[in-house]
Design a protein that fits this description.
It is a single chain. This protein is about 35% helix and about 15% strand. The protein is an alpha+beta fold. A hairpin with a 4-residue loop joins β1 and β2. The radius of gyration is 18 Å and the shape is globular. The protein starts with a strand and ends in a 19-residue tail after the last helix.
C-alpha cells in the first residue's frame, strides 16, 4: 500500500491509500480520485517527505489494517444509511434543488441525489453547501 498526500484544484489537502503507484495513476486518469471536501476530480499529488531508512517504525500488522478498513467501511455505511433514511432523494435534480433551497426558492430540507463534478464545482463556487456521500466497497455477497 502507498499513501499519497493529495490536493485538489481548490487547494483542499487530503491523504489516500493505493495498492500501487500505477493504481493511483489509473484511477486519477479515469477521474475516480475525488476530493472528499468538494468532490473535485482535479486532484494531484503533493510533495511528500520520503520514509527515512533506519527508522524502527513498522507497518501496521495485516490484521490491524483489516480491522481499520472494516471500521472505516462501517462508518461510511452508517453515514450513507442515515442520509438515505432521513434525507429526501431528488435524483439527478440535486444541483437545481440544492441551489433553490440555498436561495430560498424551495422549502428548506435535507436532500441527496446525483450531480456531476461540474455541477458540484458550480455549487461550491457559489457557496451552496454540499458534500459527497462516502463510497462503499462492493458487497461480495451481491457479486454475480
Amino acid at each position: 500500500m502507498i499513501r499519497y498526500a493529495l490536493i485538489c484544484d481548490h487547494e483542499h489537502g487530503f491523504e489516500a491509500w493505493f495498492a500501487s503507484s500505477s493504481d493511483y495513476d489509473d484511477q486519477a486518469a479515469r477521474g475516480l480520485v475525488e476530493c472528499p471536501f468538494c468532490a473535485s476530480t482535479e486532484v494531484r499529488k503533493q510533495v511528500m517527505a520520503p520514509a527515512v531508512a533506519g527508522t524502527k517504525k513498522a507497518a501496521p500488522a495485516p490484521d490491524a489494517m483489516k480491522q481499520m478498513q472494516a471500521m472505516m467501511t462501517q462508518a461510511a455505511r452508517e453515514v450513507r444509511d442515515h442520509v438515505e433514511q432521513n434525507f429526501d432523494y431528488v435524483g439527478d435534480a440535486f444541483a437545481r434543488e440544492a441551489r433553490d433551497i440555498h436561495e430560498g426558492r424551495s422549502e428548506k430540507r435535507e436532500i441527496y441525489g446525483e450531480a456531476t463534478p461540474a455541477d458540484v464545482k458550480k455549487l461550491k463556487d457559489d457557496g451552496v453547501p454540499c458534500a459527497p456521500l462516502p463510497s462503499l466497497p462492493p458487497d461480495p455477497k451481491k457479486a454475480h
